[in-house]
Amino acid sequence: MDLPVDEWKSYVFQKWSLLPKSIQDTISTADALRDIFLHSSSLLQPEDEMFLNNLSRGYFVGKDPNAPPFYREEGNKKFQKKDYVGATVLYSKGISHSRPHTVDISLCYANRSAALFYLDQYEMCLKDITRAQMHGYPERLQPKVMLRKTECLVTLGRLQEAGQTIRDLESNFAAKPTLAAAQFQILQRNLCRLKRKVQEKGNLTETYTATLTKTFEDMDLREENEQISSASSSVSLCIDPLKGRYLIATKDILPGELLVKEDAFVSVLNPGEMPPGLHHGLENKWDTRVTNGDLYCHRCLKHTLATVPCDGCSYAKYCSNECMQQAWDLYHQIECSLGGLLLTLGIFCHIALRSTLLARFEDASKVIRKLCSEISNKDMCSPESENLVQILNYDLGEEGERHGKTVKIPVPGCDINGKYENNYNAVFNLLAHTENHSPEYKFLCALSVSALCRQLEAADSKKPETAAPPALYSELNIWGVAMLKHMLQLQCNAQAITTIQETALSGSKENNVSNSRQIRLATGIFPVVSLLNHSCSPNTSVSFISTVATIRASQQIGKGQEILHCYGPHYSRMGVADRQQKLRSQYFFDCGCPACQKEKHRAVARPRWEAFCCNQCGALLQVNLSSPFYFPLGQEASHPAQRQAPNRCATQGSLVARN
């Protein structure tokens, strides 16, 4: 999921093992990302690309014209069983495979509007009716959706629009009486019923709002930090030779206080377990399972049952036309034809590509100079500004000499004014830990990025010159180095975006019983959140609303104390040895937080063993081993009397672990 599929990983690792040792040593000992990328890229052979392309074809993301009727029929079966959620998802799958302005897409939109109506999603139902009509919904079926539209408008209290829709419907049938007598009578009865509903509600003053009530009253930062975007004024950015960059409290912080509210610089939806699209047998040709991609917008991660698909592929889906257009303008026009390849290469590679695509919309000249500096590993390509030189030499992390005066080098990722913002400059300066990754892993990332660059180059050759985005195709080697850096950064800096997903035991709206579970929705980069160091017993908690991460104090934090976040291994869920091993293998450091120090000390002080301890005085219970009531620890008592083991204290004891 994060990394390429197993078949590609195995293929690359085998290719690595067969390389001459001299080439392995060259890549293993290379200090510059440029050398790793260029050496690996030179080793990518046509047969390697062919193998990868064959794997990518297994993840079909094109539009299959035979799929919409299948999904519409399957959706109808769910609809008849009153599983309206299941029907909605299947209709959405049919929509995603349909070409614009076809009967297929109009029918799927109309059917989905019916399911949404029974789910009481009236606003979404109205939008789907409009979409069905916009894509050429057959005129003979128009009365059905017009009646549904009127029902929605009446329910929402939009009575003038409802009345106008009824008048339009009546005038249309007066001009074109195409219905059979029985159908016309049914239509007339429904129109009369709706007219009565409009009259009944005419004297009521109902107001409806499209805005959602905020979950927390202080969802916005009370006072934003002047030094760090998306952060509270209660924190400050510091740098240390050992700790690196970190945040401290500038004043006493109370539990629950909002410290960071940051939108992801980039995020990619987790596709879930997507089965390869090449199946044997017609019954398995199209997948009917529900995935994250069917329920969440691929740009803003908003939950929605009424997705709007990309016009060019069947994979990317959005919550609205606005999100679809924004995604297309920012990155999807490049990604659209690469969908199967990106699913094969994994989320990290996808994020690396999307990060560089987003970088094009910042100061392109600065971005190119940064990348040139990374590639040359010496000087910048065209150093025109002393300020820019200073920015690009942040990696020194110490004071430097300039014009005979000592100047302090700013914190990496900050702009020339010392402000740390959620932008590409901050992302670019996240640590890649190149020296810590294994040679095989670096080769896997470099070869994957090289293959992606080859595909980008091939796609560019098929497009007219006017279609090429600025500063991308002409400098693919430069962007390839950038993507390799981002891919290596992600092992330590990727943030899992989670959400609580409720699954109803039945798709019917009448069923109020549901299961709730936390799921990993997407992976993103949050430059400000990445500033927080780890603790196995942190003083903050993180939560997500769509693409926005919020960091709150989970306990009182004193002025001058460091703001700490848990990277995953928490002391309440994992022993110190397992935590240390996980942090060392993934994040390349040995944790020295108070929780780890305490557990290490206790482990050294005495061996681990278990005993019963008195709840009142804390003393160990004295058990008579010859008593018939004695039983070994871990063995369940077979008689109620055995639950009160004989001891010298009158109070009840409990089992405790001693380290």
UniProtKB/TrEMBL annotation:
It is found in: Cytoplasm; Nucleus. Residues 233-568 form the SET domain. Keywords: Cytoplasm, Metal-binding, Methyltransferase, Nucleus, S-adenosyl-L-methionine, Transferase, Zinc, Zinc-finger. It comes from the Eukaryota. It holds the Pfam family zf-MYND. Residues 297-336 form the MYND-type domain. InterPro entries: SET-MYND_domain_protein, SET_dom, SET_dom_sf, SMYD4_SET, TPR-like_helical_dom_sf, Znf_MYND. It catalyses: L-lysyl-[protein] + S-adenosyl-L-methionine = N(6)-methyl-L-lysyl-[protein] + S-adenosyl-L-homocysteine + H(+). Protein-lysine N-methyltransferase. Monomethylates PRMT5, modulating its transcriptional activity. May also act as a histone methyltransferase. Plays a critical role in cardiac development. Acts as a key epigenetic regulator of gene expression during cardiac development via its dual activities as a methyltransferase and negative regulator of HDAC1. This is Protein-lysine N-methyltransferase SMYD4. The lineage of its organism: Eukaryota, Metazoa, Chordata, Craniata, Vertebrata. The gene is SMYD4.
